[in-house]
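## Example record

The block below lists the input lines for one assembly entry, exactly as stored, with component labels intact.
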Amino acid sequence: MPPLCEVDDVKVHFALRGSAAWLRTLRDGKPPVVRAVDGVSIDIEAGSTLGLVGESGCGKSTVARALVRLVRPTAGHIRFEGAELTGLSDQDFNEVRPHLQMVFQDPAASLNPRLSVRRMVEEPLKLHSALGAAERKERGEAVLEEVGLGAELADRYPHELSGGQCQRVNIARALVTNPRLIVLDEPTSALDVSLRARVILLLEELRQSHGLSYLFISHDLATVRYLASRVAVMYLGVIVEEATTAELFDRPAHPYTRALLAAVPVPDPDAKRDPFVLSGEIPSPIDIPAGCRLRARCPFAQPVCAEPVPYREVAPGHFAACHLV
Amino acid sequence: MTAVVEVRDLSVGFATDYGEVEAVDEVSFEVREGEVLGLVGESGSGKSVTATAILRLIRKPGRLTQGSIMLGGRDLCRLNEDELQQIRGTEIALISQTPRTALNPLLTVGQQVARMFVLHAGLTKAESRKRAIEMLALVGIPEPERRARQYAHQFSGGMCQRVMIAMALATRPRLLIADEPTTGLDVSTAARILDLLRELGRETGASILLITHDLGVVATTCHRVAVMHAGQVVEVAPVRALFRHPAHPYTRALVRSIPRVDREITMEPIPGAVPSLLNAPAGCRYADRCPWVEERCRRQKPAMTEIAPEHFVACFAVEDGRAAPV
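Predicted structure tokens for the full assembly:
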């Protein structure tokens, strides 16, 4: 069976503008470009959750935005249910939108402060369905019920809701059109511990009951471990490793993955800490080093790492982009 | 071990149109010499208000309603503003959650660190500048001479937090309050900031009050932990005891509610929500969320009892043995 959604060698580059860019053009002989996403390929299988992890600035949110066409990819293909999305006109893409929804990171900021909960949840139905007012109301209330918000909250406005409730409205709004795939961009990172647990459990429950697929983007590795069946690790615009969740967490192959895992504080004072750390900070996506992008920070770096890195299968279903594994 | 700061029966209330919100309710704990004490709890549990109260920076409509905060033989609650100004920044320093907004965008980073030496140690401009560069080097900022001439917007989040730590430790304070110092930072940056705090705390002898909601941070950084819920301290324990034998029903629920990176677990969210602190109930504020609640819990506030050496808990169910120990 082909995957539900295929992201195939997608690149998203942004041209820099302004006087600094002009100076750079004079210096380098070509205009500077931010290579936010620089050749990413991922498959999302129907009914499963793919975790996409990495630090801020690695391009993971740009992948998500490209997928729902909030930015246009510079190159590459995105296929959804077998159909090519990249060439579609905006009008044709609107036909796909009900099946491809997104939940954003900041639960309160992504809601319209002037609309009631009911209005916001019914809005996608107005755009994407032929339902009448009474049917929309019924459907909206049913979805609110599903995400654990009672009908008494339907006439409230965002400022009257807690962070957890706001995120439930966002989930309801994404769910109301019966999508196949929901892109979740850090849906729990703005939430408090106890609310986070409940939203995570809600997401998992909804995925199972609706046969949904998720692209779950997060820097919170513990949550990713809980929700995802496969995990892809992103660094500086490219995928450096991908494997099933159990394999990735137990046997990370890429030094970057290992460093990420080692940095997560474990809630157990007796847990053995992997002392592995990377030096320095993530380089600018304008001046990307040739060869392995982690080279300058990696303690294992060898001369060979300056060569282009092959993305290889290091174990069945486990891929890594590193010369040394 | 001697206590550097001792908070006793501290209460903070905020006057609202609907009545008084008792954000901190008879909180007691001490931070001992050279230790890192974690103060954990959900948002709204009163952690930050407690820290603000220690600095005596509670602003109207808030006020300290009772209690004492002893630091070096003096009660901070009884000092006037001039005396407090002598203590803030010199004996107690603060690292806040948002390093970028805590730094002045119009001064270079070097100038801001140097100001600490001018204000609190009376050094000359040239001396303070030299010391500022030393401090920036100490907190691991590469090329400190050059970076000292830059502004906050030219620093990454992690580097801004390093500058905050340099400023906080410049005057060798006795107590460093770190309010969610790694929230908003990437995991690997956060890990390095915590390592730095621990190391510098040890080197300078500063005790640290670390406010966090992240139990992972607590486990890797703290010596002892105080758990807060809805303005009350419900449990105080050495870090190992807290994770091995959490006693208070809230602590138990908190430990079970977080996903873990090191193994697969079944996650159980904490039932209910933090109760409204507006005209809060008289008894235990966890009563409505507690599986072992009984009539007495709603009437009477349980006192802190020592259930194991150094392990204190405020819960009737634990006292009576109804909540079996873990």
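Chain B has 13 helices and twelve strands. The mean pLDDT of chain B is 92.
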